[in-house]
Design goal:
Number of domains: 2
Helix content: 55-70%
Distance between the termini: 53 Å
Largest sheet: 5 strands, mixed
Radius of gyration: 29 Å
Number of strands: 7
Strand content: 5-15%
Number of helices: 21
Strand order of the largest sheet: 3-4-5-6-7
Shape: elongated
Structural class: alpha/beta
Length: about 500
Amino acid sequence: MNLVERIQKEWFSNVKGDLLSGIVVALALIPEAIAFSIIAGVDPMVGLYASFTMAVIIAFAGGRPGMISAATGAMALVMVPLVSEYGLQYLFAATILTGIIQILFGVFKVAKLMKFIPRAVMIGFVNALAILIFMAQVPHFIGISTLTYVFVAITLVIVYVVPRFFKAIPAPLIAILVLTAVAIFSGAELRTVGDLGAITQSLPHLLFPNVPFTFETLAIIFPYSISLAIVGLLESLLTASIVDDMTGTESNKNQEARGQGLANIVTGFFGGMAGCAMIGQSVINVKSGGRGRLSTLIAGLFLIFLIIVLGDWVIQIPMPVLVGIMIMVSIGTFDWSSFSYLRKAPLTDAVVMLVTVSIVVATHDLSKGVIAGVILSAIFFVAKISKLKVIKQEENSQVHYEVEGQLFFASVDGFVDGFDFTVEDKKIVIDFSAAHIWDDSAVGAIDKVVMKYRENNNFVTLHNLNAASKKLVDKLAVFNDTDARLSMH
């Protein structure tokens, strides 16, 4: 595909759908950006400016068309200690450094590490995110008023029923426009977007963080920046994989890493907080018909239009309407087939999924849950493949051992325990045709076995080592130099 064809496909193959979906996403971004700013302990405009610059830059530089990037809760949680202890200017500096680190991750193709995230962790990640999206809405409608419940219910009816009869305009946009008008003209007592925080009707401007350019400053911001870079990329790459599945298309994960980095650098210079891909808004975009880069660009541009031109109207949007839309997102995001997955999948996979969900929901930190899930999967995998058999057959003056399995650090004890070292003056044959030697621990275990047999004057032969195993043994084994009563075939 040449450049012109790619531009046509990524930008102009779905203009109407991208325009309308971008508008819906922009409206949904406002309360989220304000809320995440409050979590981070900064002015609401810091989150709104970040959402604007992130969306606009990532529309051009990202590797996943149709994915939305903005200020996020996962990133906001990492920022809290930095902002409270050192202030806003250090946050801007940390955001710029975060972008630089992410670009380096992209250059060194860190996205290939995605293949090490098991399916059980992915399912847990998605379900945990759906739960967090729903939990974030609870304070905005539980115990507020009866009218709040009514507006949430009507919003859900609109977003689920209207698309069955009318699809020209995304149902969430219809719900926002109609119910906002009803609330304004009826004078209904409802919480609005304006209740979350004040919106300043002005464009972001270029600034340089007012911090000392010293190694001390670097030492302060680097730990936060590396954490933000990892959390942001993890959430972005997982979200990209989810959107890939939803749309049946592929994305360039390394380009996405570089794009996220560039977007964060620009955001830091324009007074915004570090951001990353948002699965909630990305799902809204896809479900509203957004597929191309244009939808992401429109989301960013319409967001700043809403702030500057329609700010007085935006603050009147009832929160119950946006809550209803986000509840729809959480329902659509949750993988309902995971209940049957729990029954059918191996117990270890089910445990990994549940642990991932539990940790993410408990900490509100997606990275901790995913990392814990990956580590737990690795432990289960190591435990599974560490099961090794040593089968003994004795004939006259020869003892034959057949090793079956993977010989590495976790299986060496079982390997050594499988041998009888009481024999004397016999030929010991150890057959590795059904085994593979992986590491120095494995070679050390073979050394131990050979040396023990040597003590009783036995002659040891290692048979059928595959090429990789033989190379490792030749390189690391001690017995090659010390034991004349050993041969290898």
